[in-house]
Amino acid sequence: MIDVTELSKSFRRGNLVTEVLKGVTFRVRSGEFVAIMGPSGSGKSTLLNILGLLDRPDSGRYLLDGQDYSQADDEARSAARNRKIGFVFQQFHLLDRASALRNVTLPLLYTDKDPGNGTARAERALEAVGLSHRTRYLPSELSGGEQQRVAIARALINDPPLILADEATGNLDERSGAEILDIFRRIVDEGRTLVLITHDREVAKRADRILSFGDGRMLGDEVILPRAPGAIAAATGAAPPA
Amino acid sequence: MSRTQRTAQDVFVSLLANRQRAFLMMLGLAVGVAVLSAVIVMGQGTRARVMGLVRVHNLDMVMVRAGGDEQIFAPTADRGLASLFEADARAIEAEIPNIQLVSVVQNKRDINLAFEDRATTTRAFGVDPSWTDIRYRDLAEGEPLTSEDMASMARVALLGFDVARRLFPEGGAVGRTIRVENDPYVVKGVFTEVGTATAADVENFDDRLVVPFTTSSRRLFNRPYLEQIVMRVVDTGAIVETSERVRALLRVRHNIGQGEPDDFFVREPEDVVGAALETPRTMFALMGGISFVALIAGGLVIMNLMLIAVAQRSREIGLRRALGARASDITRQFLFEALFVALLGGLAGVVLGVAVASGLAAAGIGNIQITWVPFAAALAACTVIGLAFGVYPARKAARIDPATTLRGRAA
């Protein structure tokens, strides 16, 4: 699903050039649940932006679902974000003035084809995260855990193969966070690939595999729970940290 | 729905959800459009009122009468007043600028009319077909005279309202054959009732029979000379100058030497139209200028509020990009937003402006005429302003980098 080779990225502020990613190489197989761990400044957010096609690497290659998006144009990248990737953010990023239902339908605005009955699809997506009784609620009327479940329904509505979650439990209490992680596990069991960014080791341990980052490099690749033969192969076949 | 339609619908729903913001955005433009549409409605009203006066008082007509200072209504050849002929009228039409319609006029009193057992007398007029337009006479029924009627010296007639009532008390005059001095004439049409403005009016405009000039000159009156030539000017502001030219032309045509008196008399109305329109015109120009400034200010308000909104909504923009929006989708979203707000403001402004103008008119201040013009003007102005002032914020929104906005720590 994800095939990253020698990915580098640096930012320039004035005369100061900061190397954020210093040649990162790894692969994530289809159906894997991978946690990316590291302290702030380790480059994991930049990596997520590149994996999510929101940013481009300076050098290196990124294959998503077999296709090279490293230098693709805005239209191709936008279409891939819409169809292939579902985002879940720490801040939920729901539209304040829009109901749960309308928030979930938002990705349907940007499909190339007519999405058909978006309301029905959104209702099913909300039902899948246990919120069928909250479709008309505004985000401000929902708890943090419920808001994140709305965001997950939004990420799933276009049925993407890859979910990118950025500190998705970081703003939640322990119980709500556990609920979200349970949902993530279910998503993976349905056959999707999930990449979760976190700095919390307890959260990371819920994944199949943990990639540890520090100072722009991958420092470790550890299999937590060999669930499927594919996961083991991916773990053993992964390139060693540089 | 297409992608663009979906975006438009989403913007519409967003504006409904953010009514307060939308209201503030459209306020400035609404005021500008209100002033603009009030100006249009009142300007058109004033114009319509003045044009009504022109019709009623024939303020755009120059009249030439036969005979010099000795004004007589019915000149006769043996009194030496047979001074005006059809050729004079054609010369005026051909040579004098600022004239759009010319008609010869000859008339005779005490013409006998009859239909079946009813009989009456009236004053008959022989005219060109254009006479009906020059005198602003409308037909209640039937058809006007035509150039074919003229060419064939047709025995056809238009009846004044009173004449028609006397001969046809039950109506149905058009198409019937009446007797005019014992000859058969087909009634082509009946004029609407003019009525006499005051009891002192010597002439009853409803007591008339009108026939083609060729018919009157060759058949009914059997004489070539005219009582009048009437003409409509294009620009009433130049009406005095135009009648001077007519006078000079006729003096040459009639071989009148220097110092000799005219054998005709030119009469023109005072230029009341220009005077009636001048004061409002200045005022409307001023108000039009104000509304233009207000519209630009309204556009700037929209642009400023949109720029603020773009900054405040950078996370929303980033989110939409993450969900699959292209930069062009974001541009379109904000352009639609500016356009919708501008059109909404324009609609509110037109309604407000027309309502205020109507209120003023009802209170006796000014005249109004409500047409589609202010609505079309508002639509055009708001479309242009919405797009012009929306482009910059929309482009700015599209350039926002989604990667930097989505990881904001502030909730």
SSE layout and pairings?
The complex is a heterodimer of chains A (242) and B (411).
Chain A: E1 2-13, E2 16-28, E3 33-37, H1 44-51, E4 59-64, E5 67-68, H2 74-84, E6 85-88, H3 100-105, H4 118-128, H5 144-156, E7 162-166, H6 174-189, E8 193-198, H7 201-204, E9 209-214, E10 217-223, H8 229-237
Parallel strand pairs in A: 3-8, 3-9, 6-7, 7-8
Antiparallel strand pairs in A: 1-2, 1-4, 4-5, 9-10
Helix pairs in contact in A: 4-5, 5-6
Chain B: H1 3-17, H2 19-57, E1 61-66, H3 86-95, E2 99-115, E3 118-127, H4 131-134, E4 139-142, H5 147-151, E5 156-159, H6 161-167, E6 177-180, E7 183-191, E8 208-212, H7 213-220, E9 228-233, H8 239-253, E10 264-267, H9 272-312, H10 314-322, H11 327-362, H12 373-398, H13 402-405
Parallel strand pairs in B: 3-8, 5-7
Antiparallel strand pairs in B: 1-9, 1-10, 2-3, 2-6, 2-9, 4-7, 5-8, 6-7
Helix pairs in contact in B: 1-11, 2-9, 2-11, 2-12, 9-11, 9-12, 11-12
Helix segment tally of chain B = 13
Rg over alpha carbons of chain B: 33 Å
Strand order of the largest sheet of chain B: 2-3-8-5-7-6
Task: Estimate nothing, just give the exact number of structural domains of chain A.
Answer: 1
- The unreliable regions of chain A are 237-242
Most strands sheet of chain B: 6 strands, mixed, barrel
Q: Name the beta content range of chain A.
A: 25-35%
Class inferred from helices and paired strands of chain B: alpha+beta
Query: What is the CATH architecture annotation of chain A?
Result: 3-Layer(aba) Sandwich
Integer tally of domains of chain B:
2
Number of strands of chain B: 10
**What is the N-to-C order of secondary-structure elements of chain B (H for helix, E for strand)?**
HHEHEEHEHEHEEEHEHEHHHHH
Structural class of chain A: alpha/beta
What is the mean predicted local confidence, pLDDT of chain A?
A: 87
Number of continuous helical runs of chain A: 8
Radius of gyration of chain A: 18 Å
CATH top-level class of chain A: Alpha Beta
